[in-house]
Amino acid sequence: MEYFIQQLINGISVGSIYALIALGYTMVYGIIKLINFAHGDVFMVGSFIGLFSARYLASAGLPPVLVLIISLIFSMTVSALLGITIERLAYKPLRKSTRIAALITAIGVSFLLEYTGVLVLGPQAQGFPDIMAKKQYQLFGTSIQVESNQVMILVTTIILMIILQYIVRYTKTGKAMRAVSFDMEAARLMGINVDRTISATFAIGSALAAAAGVIFGMTYNSVDPLMGVMPGLKAFVAAVLGGIGSIPGALVGGLLLGTVETEISSLGYSSWRDGVAFAVLILILIFKPSGLFGKNVREKV
Amino acid sequence: MNKKFWLGIITALVLYGVVQVLLTTGVLDDVQRSMLLLICVNVMLAVSLNLINGITGQFSIGHAGFMSVGAYTSAILTLDHNAPFILAIIAGGVVAAICGVLIGMPTLRLNGDYLAIATLGFGEIIRIIMLNTEYVGGASGLSGIPAKSTWTIMFFFMLITIVLINNFIRSTHGRACLAIRENEIAAEAMGINTTLYKVIAFTLGALFAGMAGGLSAHTFYVITPGSFNFLKSFEILVMVVLGGLGSTAGSIVGAVFVTLLYTYLRDFPEWRMIIYSIVLILMMIFRPGGLLGSTKFSLKKFGKKEAKANGGIGDSSAS
Q1: How many CB atoms lie within 10 A of CB B250?
Q2: How far apart are CA B164 and CA B220, in angstroms?
Q3: Who's near A62: CB < 8 A, 6+ residues apart?
Q4: Per the UniProt record, which residue ranges are transmembrane (chain A) (predicted)?
Q5: How many CB atoms lie within 10 A of CB B103?
Q6: What are the φ and ψ backbone dihedral angles of A127, each rounded to 5 degrees?
Q7: Which of A79, A201, B67, B131 is 20 to 30 A from B180 (CA-CA)?
Q8: Which of A203, A239, A199 lies closest to A26 in space, CA to CA?
Q9: Terminal-to-terminal C-alpha distance of chain B
């Protein structure tokens, strides 16, 4: 039992990372119906920016908490700009063309980011600086251990989720986002600046991916230019699992996928882990394509 | 079987003869010879993927998965069971086709990007199964596969692939597939069994991809699960998109072009990927029909009308 709970805790911390990336997928898909394949690579870029700023700030002698917060915000800002740039340059010209064309472009952007990364940074993995010293906590006198990193991940995820929920529910941009995702044409007629709203969606999604990237770097201490591929795909699985277009769905899907994966690894089948994630995806697509929290949308003729 | 068809066959045979002479006289060296074999494999892959993506309008990005099934099956047959080479290749194709049916049946209910991601998932699952199966060598794969692919065999397999797929496209069944691409709901309303045709296209595509996989395994001696990953699927997709989704001639041109690029940029793999992706992005933005896409017949005079009527993936309905 204790072992199971231990794995559950580990699973939740992996799942939070998936959830943060999945939010970006789900928001972009909800608004322009595009699987943004490049999202996993924005996560990678965010991680590297976090790495460089953390190195710089740590060498400047700032206290660890400040290093973390500043690197996180800096990485999120730069990635948000990157997200907007990608949208403007690659996806906007395709707004009127087929979804397949947009999807191919997204795959292209993804590879462009990955291999530009390989070219600039080199293919080998780089160590992420230990921003905060890792501490282990015993839980209630049992053998269950919680790492300080895991607590930090969960706290960061929850804070970002609350901010996101606030933006989407109560701000003007959030309302515009919901309107555009409901009906783009009608939203335009009501005077909503659709292009700006889509840019805002990309900015928020990319910022969340960057946050996930920094957290990922702190957890696994290693980042490389191709690191975005698998987490990106799995976050997409998480988004589909929860119901694409649904923000709570992305959170639940991410946590669920993280937990399932960790349990499978702990049973000794870690090399099958990625396969199981995709099997989950295919089963969900076949039996409940709208996901756990999604609405059933009837196809328009 | 009209005049144009026979003209094509004769051109192909002349091409074959010329290359054969150049090979036997030693004008073309080993590097160029293996490039020619690679071109044949890639043409088979591109033409078969074009049947699924370009003609039937189903977006599959797991083609490398089928290729790996064919490669492994035929390699095991020749390595462990001393099967005749040609038979092993065909068996590889058949097993891949069976996988195509199995994967196609449940997933083809999905459309557009969901199908894309499901096929990607299947490609990865196949790779992970190969990676974890000791019988097929696990992560190190199979090596010492007899190098039995010759220019003659490769060329005729390629020719057969092109002829069969092209004839399929022009048949009633091919028209049905085109109708599905243009508008699935309308096609269904016209009495076309859309699921059946999608599965047929998927299976045929898998069959030829499997044979291409078998041939490439017998050209390069070694196969590993890693050589059939998403990158490989992506590369095949680039060939098809570059030439023009829906055009067999385009797929051939795309495959030849990408293979040349691949061979000459071998020492700069990251540049290769960057060029691929930039080509894809620019292509989708400025010329979604590809180099030889649907605009093939659009002479200035009746350009607009033709382009619309011929459709092409570029202007099919974006619902």
Answers
A1: 27
A2: 26
A3: A70
A4: 12-32, 64-86, 98-122, 151-168, 198-216, 236-260, 272-293
A5: 26
A6: -75, 135
A7: B67
A8: A239
A9: 38
A222 strand-pairing partners: A127
Q: For residue B278, give every residue at least 6 positions away whose Cβ sits within 8 Å of its Cβ, in sequence order, or none.
A: A108, A112
- Residue B237: list chain A partners with CB under 8 A: 104, 107
Query: E strands of chain A, at which residues?
Result: 126-127, 136-138, 145-147, 222-223
CB pairs under 8 A between A and B: 136
In order of B4, B7, B15, B256, the CA distances from B10 in angstroms are 10, 5, 8, 20
Q: Do B314 and A104 touch (CB under 8 A)?
A: no
- Tens digit of pLDDT for each residue in B296-310? 443 443 444 444 444
Nearest-Cα distance to chain A for B314, in Å, is 7
Min Cα–Cα distance to chain A from B124, Å: 7
Instruction: Output phi, psi for B142, to 5 deg.
Output: -105, 140
Token pair in block for residue A244: 């694409």
**A244-268: b or e for each residue (b if 16 or more CB lie within 10 Å)?**
bbbbebbbbbbbbbbbbbbbbbbee
Residue B217 vs residues A117, B120, B171: alpha-carbon distances, Å: 31, 22, 32
Residues in CB range of B74: below 8 A, 6 or more apart? B88, B89, B91, B92, B213, B214, B217, B218
Answer yes or no: is pLDDT of A201 > 90: yes
pLDDT for A118 beyond 70:
yes
Mutation site for A-interface testing, chosen from B122, B277, B316 by largest number of A Cβ within 10 Å = B277
Set of chain B residues whose Cβ sits within 8 Å of the Cβ of A283? none
Q: Facing residues of A147 across strands?
A: A136
Place of tokens 């009906």: A183
| Site from B107, B128, B236, B287 to mutate, A interface, most A CB atoms within 10 angstroms | B128
Range of lowest pLDDT (A111-120, A136-145, B108-117, B281-290) = A136-145
Inspect the interface and report whether the beta carbons of B113 and A35 lie closer than 8 Å: yes
ipTM of this complex prediction, to 2 decimal places: 0.83
**A63, exposed or middle or buried, with CB in 10 Å at 0-12, 13-18, 19+?**
exposed
pLDDT at A30 over 90: no
Instruction: Provide the 10 A C-beta neighbour count for residue A60.
Output: 8
Burial of B69 (0-12, 13-18, 19+ CB in 10 A): buried
The SS3 of residue B288 is coil
Number of Cβ atoms within 10 Å of the Cβ of B135: 10
Within the 122-141 window of chain A, which residues sit less than 8 Å (CB to CB) from chain B? 123
Q: How many CA atoms lie within 13 A of A29 on its CB side?
A: 27
* B105 neighbourhood in chain A, CB within 8 Å: none
What residues form DSSP beta bridges with A146?
A137
Q: For residue A138, list its beta bridge partners.
A: A145
